[in-house]
Amino acid sequence: MSKHMRLIRFAEDVFAHTPVLKMVLLLIVLWLLFASGLYYGEREADGSTITSYGSALYWGIAAFSTAGIADAPLSAFSQLVGGVWIVVGSALFFGTIVATITTYFFRPLKRPARQIIDTIEYNLEQLDELSIAELDLLKETTDTLIEHMEQLKEAQLKVGD
Known about the structure:
The chain has helices at residues 3-17, 20-42, 53-64, 76-110, 112-125, 132-160. The mean pLDDT is 81. Helix 2 crosses helix 3 (53-64) and helix 2 (20-42) runs antiparallel to helix 4 (76-110). It is 80% helix and 0% strand. By secondary structure, the protein is an all-alpha fold. The chain has 2 domains: 3-110, Helix Hairpins, CATH 1.10.287; 112-160.
């Protein structure tokens, strides 16, 4: 598989199994709303550098990205809106990154098949401690499991035809 295909598969996996799209959409909507509130509060403040909606949008990015390049709003209302935006925006932005990474890497551990395999592997490590009766029971159970797996394979092959 080429690197390009692996990257596409990774992106599809991330978007399908993590909250990244929902969180980015929420972040954008909140950014637009908070920028509107900031512009509304600063539009008539004397000496304000936020004189357009575009500059309020820029301020929103500069403020929550912790770049430290955003001018402080002048009006009390704008300072409140800006302060809330910095906290909410930062939490959502960095929270999205952490949630996406965590969800992506822990997803395989949540699959039932992975849990079954992990249980079997754990139990195989414990074989030395089993009595003869327990080993006989394990053999019967394993034989039944193998029969069941073969029946499932046959059923799946019939459905596939």
